[in-house]
Amino acid sequence: MKAFLHRLLIVVFLAGVSSLSLAAQGHFSGERALAYTREFVAIGPRWPTSLGHAKAEAFLRAHFQRDQLEEDAFTADTPIGPVNLRNFIVKFPGKKPGIIVLGTHYETNYPLRNINFVGANDGGSTTGLLMAIADQLRGKPNDGCSIWLVFFDGEEAFVNWSQSDSTFGSRHLAAKWGRDGTLGKIKAFMLADMIGDKDLDIQRETNSTPWLSDLVKQAAHKFGYDRYFFKMEEPVEDDHLPFVHRGVPSVDIIDIDYGPNNSYHHTAQDTMDKISAKSLTIDGDVFLETIRLVNLR
Ligand SMILES: [Zn+2]
Predict the structure, then answer these.
(1) For residues 93 and 68, is the Cβ–Cβ distance under 8 A?
(2) CB 45 within 8 A of CB 113
(3) Of 52, 66, 144, 242, which is most buried by a Cβ count within 10 Å?
(4) Ligand 1 centre and the CA of 105: distance in Å?
(5) How does pLDDT run along the chain (297 residues), one tens digit per residue?
């Protein structure tokens, strides 16, 4: 993703630290999401065209083999030439018409292929998050809308971030779903990016659909998570934009402030010790509650 440098400080809210009993019943298992993240990140760097990328694909394929898994393979026209990429879509049907899509990207950054960049937070944590959310959905009756999990490929730039050198997987899938009529059925698209950070501070992303951001805020409030959400607002270019541009209600749930002065972002510092089960619990709680709120609309 790409964030702009200007930031608008909305509220400086220094919350008194109260330890949340997140392990208490009724909370999402961030521990489980963290365990999945650890397993996935252990593959190592997974930049497109690498052996690690093929392993990441095999990992997702094996993990979701008993679910309704769809693979969306395509060749992207990138600055380094044609590259084979693959999105994974896991479908959990519901009784209500309409689809709620949760998304993340899973690959790592190609330009960082020489620095052992494993993307524990960037691509890793949200892959683990969606895998743990799948555990909450699998085998349970769903009276609400269908829920589809999408693991995007090719979010990162191959050379320099631009509209034509980024978000290859989401641009491909949004166009495809535009042609086959799927887009019109999507009630909400929620993107997760870089939200495993121990120091969680999720921005209000200003390209997102306002009512959907409001639902996220409402969901966070229910659990007393207000201090982790929307202290700042900022536009970010990310995998939600191809959906936003096609009129799909979309929100990018992202923490673009990673490490001191964002010093862990796109560096070899993006490792497992920087992310936490607690942050993933907060994320999972808020995603699941926002799904509930979308279903009530
Ligand atoms: Zn990245």
Answers:
(1) yes
(2) yes
(3) 242
(4) 9
(5) 777 655 544 444 444 334 445 555 589 999 999 999 999 999 999 999 999 999 999 999 999 999 999 999 999 999 999 999 999 999 999 999 999 999 999 999 999 999 999 999 999 999 999 999 999 999 999 999 999 999 999 999 999 999 999 999 999 999 999 999 999 999 999 999 999 999 999 999 999 999 999 999 999 999 999 999 999 999 999 999 999 999 999 999 999 999 999 999 999 999 999 999 999 999 999 999 999 999 999
Closest C-alpha among 99, 106, 104 to residue 85: 106
Expressed in angstroms and rounded, the spacing between residue 242 Cα and the centre of ligand 1 is 17
Q: How far is the CA of 163 from the centre of ligand 1 (A)?
A: 15
Strands 229-234 and 8-9: antiparallel
Task: For the chain, list the domains and their CATH numbers.
Answer: 23-296 (3.40.630.10)
Residue 18 C-alpha to ligand 1 middle, in angstroms? 31
